[in-house]
């Protein structure tokens, strides 16, 4: 994505798009990180001369390097099964409650900490999270950007620094990690070989951004008040609040809320919800039918007939998604959706319901009431999901921008280069520059409450 920023204007254009296709090999599910890096180089070639480059990606995953700085293998995908049962072993040495009090991270089997306990580190001298790895290949410089580091479960969200105590007790050597970098820090310059390959003229600085895509997306929520909730929708739905301090209570742990770190000392207090992954996997299983048609069928299907718990880690792994959804409906004594339209409706209703629960719980647990829900990311294109979310939450939804992560990325670079001011300024610029769509709740909150009770939810 190419961004053009001035103090009064913000534009984003797509220069190049490439797929990110996980690959299953006999030993498990892997990322094709060289293909991603090739996509980055092609992207730079397509953009042309730029003043700054910044990289963000999904969280928790990493590459391991040997003493010469060479990658030791394909990074393992967080949906790989290797972390099954690992958390229980970790909790035997650091009880889950202590781990939460120290790191504030919600339980997810794929948190870097559990991956590292499952890892065979043979010959590994350095660990770089995915955006840091790509940045390293571009610049030759190694660092660990803070917002993404906060998803490792090895960071204390109060000090915003490594938790030496947790690392020691679970047997992870923090020396594996490169020094922490803050969003906005200078991260190096494109290497001569990169300049040659992309046709750019140096020096081209690389700027550390909020390299966790969700951190970048939240930075680009066009909020005009502090009383807002956000949902970053895409493969995942990340639903919650922007806070000044973490919430580390036992109640918060039980509700599986996470305290990830955001820009400028903020905390992203949110819950991970399976998101449009549920639909993406069904669409894959159905042989990629037309999405527009599917959504029209879903809109016409009966509302709230069956719902599943879209926060359930049982939906994490790929494969057999229509069957798994049907099984979940059957197991909870609800009608089993039969047609593609009905299954799609079940997914969207379930997502809206999970959004409602997350936003209600977050407000209560953080004692931070809101008047509006901002939806950003790919899901903003799904008008039915946005309307259902407004109805379920009983709050207005403001949808947009779709490319929130890219905009947050670009704005942090622009700020590092002195083009925009603080977070409020960044948000003002977004509101001024982007088309946003508003969805008003259309009543029926009782039906959503009843559906929530059907799932036995809190
Ligand atoms: C979204 C995301 C999310 C993480 C998940 C692994 O892309 O970064 O915030 O929890 O991927």
From TrEMBL:
GO terms for molecular function: ATP binding; glycerol kinase activity; rhamnulokinase activity. The keyword tRNA-binding does not apply. InterPro entries: ATPase_NBD, FGGY_C, FGGY_N, Rhamnulokinase. GO terms for biological process: glycerol metabolic process; rhamnose catabolic process. Gene3D superfamilies: 3.30.420.40. Keywords: ATP-binding, Disulfide bond, Kinase, Nucleotide-binding, Rhamnose metabolism, Transferase. It comes from the Bacteria. Residues 229-416 form the Carbohydrate kinase FGGY C-terminal domain. One of its GO terms (cellular component) is cytosol. Residues 49-218 form the Carbohydrate kinase FGGY N-terminal domain. PANTHER family: L-RHAMNULOKINASE, SUGAR KINASE. Belongs to the FGGY kinase family. This is Rhamnulokinase. It comes from Streptomyces roseirectus.
């Amino acid at each position: 994505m190419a961004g053009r920023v001035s103090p009064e204007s913000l534009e984003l254009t797509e220069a190049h798009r490439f797929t990110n296709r996980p690959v299953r090999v006999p030993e498990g599910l892997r990322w094709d990180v060289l293909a991603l890096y090739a996509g980055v180089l092609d992207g730079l070639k397509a953009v042309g001369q730029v003043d700054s480059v910044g990289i963000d990606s999904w969280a928790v995953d990493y590459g391991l390097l040997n003493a010469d700085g060479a990658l030791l293998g394909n990074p393992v995908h967080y949906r790989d099964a290797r972390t099954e049962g690992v958390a229980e072993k970790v909790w035997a040495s650091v009880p889950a409650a202590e781990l939460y009090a120290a790191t504030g991270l919600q339980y997810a089997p794929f948190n870097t900490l559990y991956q590292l306990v499952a890892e065979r580190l043979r010959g590994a001298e350095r660990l770089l999270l995915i955006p840091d790895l790509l940045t390293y290949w571009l610049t030759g410089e190694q660092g660990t950007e803070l917002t993404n580091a906060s998803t490792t479960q090895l960071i204390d969200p109060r000090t915003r620094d490594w938790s030496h105590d947790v690392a020691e007790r679970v047997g992870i050597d923090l020396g594996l990690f490169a020094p922490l970098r803050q969003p906005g820090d200078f991260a190096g310059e494109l290497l001569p070989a990169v300049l040659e390959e992309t046709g750019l003229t140096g020096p081209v600085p690389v700027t550390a951004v909020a390299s966790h895509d969700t951190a970048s997306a939240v930075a680009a929520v066009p909020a005009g008040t502090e009383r807002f909730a956000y949902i970053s929708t895409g493969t995942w739905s990340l639903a919650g609040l922007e806070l000044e301090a973490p919430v580390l209570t036992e109640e918060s742990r039980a509700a599986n809320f996470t305290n990830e770190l955001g820009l400028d000392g903020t905390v992203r207090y949110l819950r991970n919800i399976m998101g449009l992954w549920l639909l993406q996997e069904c669409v894959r299983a159905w042989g990629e039918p037309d999405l527009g048609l599917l959504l029209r069928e879903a809109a016409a299907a009966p509302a709230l007939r069956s719902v599943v718990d879209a926060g359930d880690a049982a939906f994490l792994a790929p494969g057999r998604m229509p069957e798994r959804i049907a099984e979940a409906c059957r197991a909870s004594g609800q009608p089993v959706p039969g047609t593609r339209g009905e299954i799609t409706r079940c997914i969207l209703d379930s997502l809206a319901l999970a959004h409602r629960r997350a936003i209600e719980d977050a407000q209560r647990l953080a004692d931070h009431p809101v008047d509006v829900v901002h939806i950003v990311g790919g899901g903003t294109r799904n008008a039915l999901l946005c309307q259902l979310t407004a109805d379920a939450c009983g709050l207005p939804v403001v949808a947009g921008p779709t490319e929130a992560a890219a905009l947050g990325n670009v704005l942090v670079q622009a700020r590092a280069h002195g083009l925009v001011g603080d977070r409020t300024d960044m948000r003002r610029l977004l509101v001024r520059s982007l088309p946003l769509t508003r969805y008003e709740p259309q009543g029926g909150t009782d039906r959503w409450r009843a559906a929530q009770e059907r799932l036995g939810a809190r």
